[in-house]
Amino acid sequence: MFKNKQFLRYAVTFIIIGVLYNFFYSGLQNDHLNILTPFLQSTYGWDDLTITNPVTIGAIVTIVVYLIIGSALIKYGVTRILVLSIFVLALGCVGISFAGKNYMVYALGIFIVRIMVVPLQMGGFMLAANWFIKYRGRVLGIITAGSPLMSVIGIGFLTSMVNSYGLNTYIMIAAALVAMGIVTAFGLKDKPEDVGLYPDGAETAPASEIEESEETVSLKSILSDPRAWKLIISYGILQFVILCMMSYMAVRYISLSTPDDIPNLFVSKALLWLSIGAASGIPMSYVLGWIDDKLGSVKASIVLNILFLFAVIPLAIMPQGGNDILMAIWAFGVACMTGGLPTMHPCVTSYVYGRKKYMAANKWIMTIQAIPMAFGLTFMGAFNQAGMLTTAYYILLGLLVVSFVTILSMKNIPDANAADRDYAKVEVNK
Fold this sequence. Notes:
Largest sheet: none
CATH topology: Growth Hormone, Chain: A
CATH architecture: Up-down Bundle
Number of domains: 1
Order of helices and strands: HHHHHHHHHHHHHHHHHHH
Helix content: over 70%
Shape: globular
CATH class: Mainly Alpha
Distance between the termini: 25 Å
């Protein structure tokens, strides 16, 4: 990769903008609700379900959006769809900023935001799959560090901004998105072949694609493929868990607050631990990518599933007023979770289906996975309003046991691009 200077220019541009894709995807899908929900509750007296219902509706709509966006990325090109989506996402942020007490304007704005973050993730992952095979895990490990970076610096920064500027903060977010869209339009290409290059900066086409089957990936083939169902179940659970965890962590800490926590436990202690502990977990995104490149996606997925426990268990057993050790472990787990999942989802899908069939398979897989995800906020909100939020975390732990067993069952699935991967060369040399 580093020997080919032309490839390196595109690769570096993608890595930088890819970090921002994940930063804003994580921030505008779930994380910003931790700031927005308390602000709107205290300012307008709205309850948490009133605030999050448009997001839940948007999440239901994304079940179809995953399929539409996936098809559009294949048919019309990644960067073209990405640029259009980023500008619409910016408009949604503008809508939130102008809403004030007007609930309909707020609902429409946050609905658009929830839908239009989807192309950020899907498009960024498709670019990574198109441009990298040998270095795929490590590159994804770098760019997906944008998600825990949102936890480390973004949430605290947004909290300060919203406290100072209210909903006008979203105008500033919109401006940043427009700048990101411009860089995408002029600095990236859909795949290396578009500019006479090959993945990883190699001098020849990928060896694993020479005899690749021409069979298409249809819904019928996905539904009849045990490999697809293992991906859907295992990573569908992981995505459901991360959505529940990230959107309700502020609410959880507020519910555990004591009179000594000013204004609440989330602000007085949790944000500090999130910055400290999550910073130590950011490198795990790259470590998981390295494990993927060297040992394969299944082994890296097992490690990821275990790391999820570091985020969920502390919140399940957290006492009133918090506990410093548990909060430090939780913060580390949050970084591993938010950085590791977006690293491994495209890695394991590419592992099973290969570079060229990645998006054709991924659009169906993510569409099916989006069905339970759509009800994540409702799930947490219902338990919270019933005063049983602790129970919700124990249910999430039970789901992680299911995903762990499902991932273990994938150990015999071969890598579609094995001939171009680092570990494949090691095995050949032996």
